[in-house]
Amino acid sequence: MSLFFITGTDTEIGKTTCTAALVQAAAARGLRAAGLKPVAAGQELREGRWVNEDVAQLHAAQAAGLSEAEVGPIQLRTPCAPHLAARLEGRPIRRAEVLDALRAPLHKLDIAFVEGVGGFRVPLDEVAAWDSADLARELAAPVILVVGLRLGCINHALLTAEAIQARGLPLAGWIGNTVDGQMLQHGENLATLRALLPAPCLGAVPRLAEPSPGAVASHLEAAALDRLLKLKDS
Known about the structure:
234 residues, Rossmann fold, 6-stranded parallel β-sheet, 38% helix, 23% strand, ATP-binding
Protein backbone atom coordinates (compact mmCIF):
# COMPACT_ATOMS: atom_id res chain seq x y z
CA MET A 1 0.00 0.00 0.00
CA SER A 2 0.98 3.66 -0.31
CA LEU A 3 1.45 5.89 2.71
CA PHE A 4 1.81 9.67 2.86
CA PHE A 5 2.34 11.98 5.81
CA ILE A 6 0.38 15.25 5.74
CA THR A 7 1.83 18.24 7.54
CA GLY A 8 1.20 21.98 7.48
CA THR A 9 2.96 25.29 7.79
CA ASP A 10 0.92 26.03 10.92
CA THR A 11 -2.23 25.07 12.76
CA GLU A 12 -5.72 26.13 11.59
CA ILE A 13 -4.82 26.24 7.90
CA GLY A 14 -7.23 23.60 6.60
CA LYS A 15 -4.88 20.63 6.82
CA THR A 16 -7.64 18.19 7.80
CA THR A 17 -9.97 19.33 5.03
CA CYS A 18 -7.14 18.99 2.51
CA THR A 19 -6.39 15.50 3.84
CA ALA A 20 -10.06 14.54 3.50
CA ALA A 21 -10.04 15.96 -0.04
CA LEU A 22 -7.06 13.76 -0.94
CA VAL A 23 -8.93 10.76 0.48
CA GLN A 24 -11.97 11.52 -1.66
CA ALA A 25 -9.85 12.11 -4.75
CA ALA A 26 -8.04 8.79 -4.27
CA ALA A 27 -11.31 6.96 -3.67
CA ALA A 28 -12.74 8.47 -6.87
CA ARG A 29 -9.82 6.79 -8.66
CA GLY A 30 -10.82 3.39 -7.33
CA LEU A 31 -8.47 3.17 -4.34
CA ARG A 32 -9.39 2.09 -0.83
CA ALA A 33 -8.31 5.29 0.86
CA ALA A 34 -8.49 6.83 4.32
CA GLY A 35 -7.08 9.67 6.33
CA LEU A 36 -5.66 8.72 9.73
CA LYS A 37 -4.96 11.10 12.60
CA PRO A 38 -3.10 9.08 15.21
CA VAL A 39 -2.98 11.91 17.75
CA ALA A 40 -5.72 14.53 18.03
CA ALA A 41 -6.25 17.13 20.74
CA GLY A 42 -9.53 18.93 21.41
CA GLN A 43 -12.97 17.39 21.79
CA GLU A 44 -16.48 18.72 22.23
CA LEU A 45 -19.54 17.01 23.64
CA ARG A 46 -22.06 16.07 20.94
CA GLU A 47 -25.22 14.16 21.72
CA GLY A 48 -23.69 12.62 24.79
CA ARG A 49 -20.29 11.68 23.40
CA TRP A 50 -16.95 13.43 23.04
CA VAL A 51 -15.95 14.12 19.45
CA ASN A 52 -12.81 15.47 17.82
CA GLU A 53 -13.84 17.47 14.74
CA ASP A 54 -10.78 16.50 12.69
CA VAL A 55 -11.24 12.80 13.35
CA ALA A 56 -14.95 13.05 12.56
CA GLN A 57 -14.22 14.77 9.24
CA LEU A 58 -11.61 12.21 8.23
CA HIS A 59 -13.89 9.35 9.26
CA ALA A 60 -16.73 10.76 7.15
CA ALA A 61 -14.43 11.14 4.12
CA GLN A 62 -13.41 7.48 3.94
CA ALA A 63 -15.49 4.59 2.62
CA ALA A 64 -13.15 1.76 3.61
CA GLY A 65 -15.17 0.73 6.64
CA LEU A 66 -12.82 2.07 9.30
CA SER A 67 -14.17 2.98 12.72
CA GLU A 68 -13.59 6.38 14.30
CA ALA A 69 -11.23 4.69 16.75
CA GLU A 70 -9.15 3.38 13.84
CA VAL A 71 -9.08 6.80 12.17
CA GLY A 72 -8.21 8.62 15.42
CA PRO A 73 -6.88 6.15 18.00
CA ILE A 74 -5.51 8.70 20.50
CA GLN A 75 -7.92 11.55 21.18
CA LEU A 76 -7.29 14.04 23.96
CA ARG A 77 -9.96 16.33 25.30
CA THR A 78 -8.02 19.56 25.87
CA PRO A 79 -7.59 21.78 22.78
CA CYS A 80 -3.89 22.56 23.07
CA ALA A 81 -0.53 21.09 22.08
CA PRO A 82 -0.91 17.32 22.49
CA HIS A 83 1.99 16.82 24.90
CA LEU A 84 0.44 19.47 27.16
CA ALA A 85 -3.03 17.96 26.84
CA ALA A 86 -1.57 14.55 27.67
CA ARG A 87 0.13 16.00 30.76
CA LEU A 88 -3.09 17.66 31.94
CA GLU A 89 -5.11 14.49 31.44
CA GLY A 90 -2.51 12.09 32.83
CA ARG A 91 -2.37 10.13 29.61
CA PRO A 92 1.17 9.99 28.21
CA ILE A 93 1.55 9.63 24.45
CA ARG A 94 3.98 6.80 23.80
CA ARG A 95 5.75 6.07 20.53
CA ALA A 96 4.93 2.35 20.47
CA GLU A 97 1.25 2.98 21.18
CA VAL A 98 0.99 5.52 18.37
CA LEU A 99 2.77 3.35 15.81
CA ASP A 100 0.87 0.18 16.71
CA ALA A 101 -2.50 1.93 16.54
CA LEU A 102 -1.58 3.61 13.27
CA ARG A 103 -0.44 0.44 11.55
CA ALA A 104 -3.38 -1.72 12.69
CA PRO A 105 -5.89 -0.70 9.94
CA LEU A 106 -3.41 -0.38 7.06
CA HIS A 107 -4.16 -3.86 5.71
CA LYS A 108 -7.65 -2.61 4.82
CA LEU A 109 -6.33 0.17 2.59
CA ASP A 110 -4.60 0.78 -0.72
CA ILE A 111 -3.49 4.24 0.39
CA ALA A 112 -3.42 6.12 3.68
CA PHE A 113 -2.86 9.80 4.37
CA VAL A 114 -1.52 10.18 7.91
CA GLU A 115 -2.21 13.65 9.24
CA GLY A 116 0.13 15.14 11.79
CA VAL A 117 -0.72 17.73 14.43
CA GLY A 118 -0.36 21.43 13.64
CA GLY A 119 3.00 22.07 12.01
CA PHE A 120 5.83 19.65 11.29
CA ARG A 121 7.58 19.73 14.68
CA VAL A 122 4.92 19.38 17.35
CA PRO A 123 5.99 17.53 20.54
CA LEU A 124 4.16 14.30 21.26
CA ASP A 125 6.11 12.47 23.98
CA GLU A 126 7.85 14.73 26.50
CA VAL A 127 9.80 11.90 28.12
CA ALA A 128 11.31 10.58 24.88
CA ALA A 129 11.49 14.03 23.21
CA TRP A 130 9.53 12.49 20.32
CA ASP A 131 7.65 14.80 17.94
CA SER A 132 5.52 14.67 14.80
CA ALA A 133 8.60 14.97 12.57
CA ASP A 134 9.96 11.86 14.25
CA LEU A 135 6.66 10.11 13.53
CA ALA A 136 6.96 10.92 9.83
CA ARG A 137 10.53 9.61 9.84
CA GLU A 138 9.48 6.40 11.64
CA LEU A 139 6.92 5.81 8.90
CA ALA A 140 9.47 6.64 6.17
CA ALA A 141 6.57 8.32 4.43
CA PRO A 142 6.74 10.89 1.64
CA VAL A 143 5.36 14.18 2.95
CA ILE A 144 2.61 16.37 1.52
CA LEU A 145 2.76 19.94 2.79
CA VAL A 146 -0.36 22.09 3.20
CA VAL A 147 0.66 25.73 2.90
CA GLY A 148 -1.69 28.20 4.53
CA LEU A 149 -1.75 31.06 2.04
CA ARG A 150 -1.42 34.26 4.06
CA LEU A 151 1.27 36.78 4.90
CA GLY A 152 4.46 34.93 5.84
CA CYS A 153 3.59 31.71 4.01
CA ILE A 154 6.69 31.67 1.80
CA ASN A 155 9.06 31.68 4.77
CA HIS A 156 6.98 29.11 6.66
CA ALA A 157 6.77 26.82 3.64
CA LEU A 158 10.47 26.95 2.81
CA LEU A 159 11.53 26.38 6.42
CA THR A 160 9.16 23.41 6.68
CA ALA A 161 10.45 21.97 3.41
CA GLU A 162 14.02 22.26 4.75
CA ALA A 163 13.04 20.47 7.96
CA ILE A 164 11.40 17.66 5.98
CA GLN A 165 14.41 17.18 3.74
CA ALA A 166 16.82 17.36 6.70
CA ARG A 167 15.18 14.20 8.03
CA GLY A 168 15.76 12.35 4.78
CA LEU A 169 12.10 12.44 3.76
CA PRO A 170 10.92 13.30 0.26
CA LEU A 171 8.55 16.23 -0.16
CA ALA A 172 6.05 14.58 -2.50
CA GLY A 173 3.90 17.63 -3.15
CA TRP A 174 2.17 20.63 -1.65
CA ILE A 175 -1.26 22.21 -1.57
CA GLY A 176 -1.76 25.95 -1.29
CA ASN A 177 -4.87 26.64 0.80
CA THR A 178 -6.04 30.25 1.03
CA VAL A 179 -6.77 31.14 4.64
CA ASP A 180 -6.70 34.91 4.11
CA GLY A 181 -9.09 35.94 1.38
CA GLN A 182 -7.66 39.48 1.43
CA MET A 183 -4.03 38.38 1.03
CA LEU A 184 -2.05 40.89 -1.01
CA GLN A 185 -0.21 39.59 -4.08
CA HIS A 186 -1.91 36.21 -3.77
CA GLY A 187 -1.03 35.03 -7.26
CA GLU A 188 2.53 36.28 -6.98
CA ASN A 189 3.00 34.42 -3.70
CA LEU A 190 1.73 31.25 -5.33
CA ALA A 191 4.10 31.71 -8.25
CA THR A 192 7.02 32.14 -5.84
CA LEU A 193 6.06 28.97 -3.98
CA ARG A 194 5.80 27.05 -7.26
CA ALA A 195 9.29 28.26 -8.18
CA LEU A 196 11.00 27.65 -4.85
CA LEU A 197 9.41 24.58 -3.30
CA PRO A 198 11.15 21.40 -4.51
CA ALA A 199 7.95 19.48 -5.21
CA PRO A 200 4.90 19.72 -7.48
CA CYS A 201 1.86 21.76 -6.53
CA LEU A 202 -1.10 19.42 -6.09
CA GLY A 203 -3.62 22.25 -5.99
CA ALA A 204 -4.25 25.90 -5.23
CA VAL A 205 -7.43 26.31 -3.20
CA PRO A 206 -9.15 29.71 -3.06
CA ARG A 207 -10.92 31.03 0.00
CA LEU A 208 -14.12 28.98 0.04
CA ALA A 209 -17.41 29.97 1.63
CA GLU A 210 -18.02 26.31 2.49
CA PRO A 211 -14.64 24.53 2.61
CA SER A 212 -15.88 20.96 2.37
CA PRO A 213 -13.55 18.14 1.28
CA GLY A 214 -15.45 17.87 -2.00
CA ALA A 215 -15.07 21.58 -2.69
CA VAL A 216 -11.34 21.42 -1.93
CA ALA A 217 -10.93 18.29 -4.06
CA SER A 218 -12.33 20.16 -7.05
CA HIS A 219 -9.28 22.46 -6.89
CA LEU A 220 -6.69 19.68 -6.86
CA GLU A 221 -4.65 19.33 -10.04
CA ALA A 222 -5.67 16.01 -11.58
CA ALA A 223 -2.47 15.32 -13.51
CA ALA A 224 -0.23 16.04 -10.52
CA LEU A 225 -2.43 13.91 -8.28
CA ASP A 226 -2.39 11.02 -10.74
CA ARG A 227 1.41 11.13 -10.80
CA LEU A 228 1.49 11.21 -7.00
CA LEU A 229 -0.76 8.16 -6.83
CA LYS A 230 1.24 6.51 -9.63
CA LEU A 231 -1.85 6.13 -11.76
CA LYS A 232 -0.03 7.62 -14.74
CA ASP A 233 3.59 7.56 -15.79
CA SER A 234 3.66 11.27 -16.65
